[in-house]
Design a protein that fits this description.
Number of helices: 5
Number of domains: 2
Strand content: 15-25%
Strand order of the largest sheet: 1-2-3-6-5-4
Distance between the termini: 144 Å
Structural class: alpha/beta
CATH class of the largest domain: Alpha Beta
Number of strands: 8
Largest sheet: 6 strands, mixed
Oligomer: single chain
Helix content: 10-25%
Order of helices and strands: HEHEEHEEEEHEH
CATH topology of the largest domain: Beta Polymerase, domain 2
CATH superfamily of the largest domain: NADH:ubiquinone oxidoreductase Nqo5 subunit
Length: 235
């Protein structure tokens, strides 16, 4: 009787629909809808870019062309001067795009007036000198001119020997007054006709002219320095 009862009980339980099976575990394959594809694996991380190759060294710069030197000048300006003054125009050339005329020293004032009145070079920018101690005509007296009307520059040069005087152009351009005094002070060039030719940078009692190339700048005028400054050397 015991075995029959046990068998009956097992049979009833097997046929009883109220006895439910335990739910399937969450996340099991049986939970996926039919026809769903399997999850794709994650794409591998993109490879890091390779570092750029170093730039090739630049080739050395080509050597710059030599600077333009003096070039003979024979333009309309020069022809007008030559037609007016003939051989008083000694040389003509251009250097760094500037016209240069070498003129006769004794004719400097006449040529300067022509520059101002006929060629409209109404502004004397500078007047200075250059010392060439081994040359027969030791000094260049240099006048740099400018024309406001033409926006053009012109350089005049006159060769002056040591001990020779140079005509003053103060009557042509008033600014020459101070410029000629400076050239006298520094180089010892005498400008004939200057209204008040005396030193402008150094004391009147100073001996010598400092921009002459044979002037010893280290000794200076030791007598003046001793007398006026109370020391033995200005250096």
């Amino acid at each position: 009787m015991v075995l029959c009862a046990a068998g009956f009980t097992d049979k009833r339980m097997a046929n009883d629909p109220s006895e439910k099976q335990p739910p399937a575990a969450l996340g099991s394959p049986s939970e996926k809808p039919a026809g769903a594809s399997a999850e794709k694996p994650a794409a591998p991380a993109a490879a890091l870019p390779k570092p750029a190759a170093p730039a090739a060294p630049k080739p050395p710069a080509a050597p710059s062309p030599p600077k333009e030197g003096p070039v003979p000048l024979d333009n309309e300006l020069v022809k007008r001067f030559q037609a007016r003054f003939g051989g008083k125009i000694r040389e003509s050339w251009t250097d760094r795009k500037q016209s240069i005329l070498v003129v006769d020293r004794e004719s400097l004032v006449e040529i300067a007036e022509f520059c101002r009145d006929d060629e409209c070079f109404d502004y004397l920018v500078d007047l200075t000198a250059v010392d060439w101690p081994k040359r027969e005509k030791r000094f260049d007296v240099v006048l740099n001119l400018y024309s406001f009307r033409k926006n053009e520059r012109l350089r005049l040069k006159a060769y002056v020997g040591d001990g020779e005087s140079c005509p003053s152009v103060t009557g042509v351009w008033s600014t020459a007054n101070w410029l000629e005094r400076e050239a006298f002070d520094m180089f010892g060039i005498v400008f004939e006709g200057h209204p008040n030719l005396k030193r402008i940078l150094l004391p009147d009692e100073w001996q010598g002219h400092p921009l002459r190339k044979d002037y010893d700048i280290l000794t200076q005028d030791t007598a003046w320095v001793r007398e006026n400054l109370g020391i033995e050397s200005g250096q």
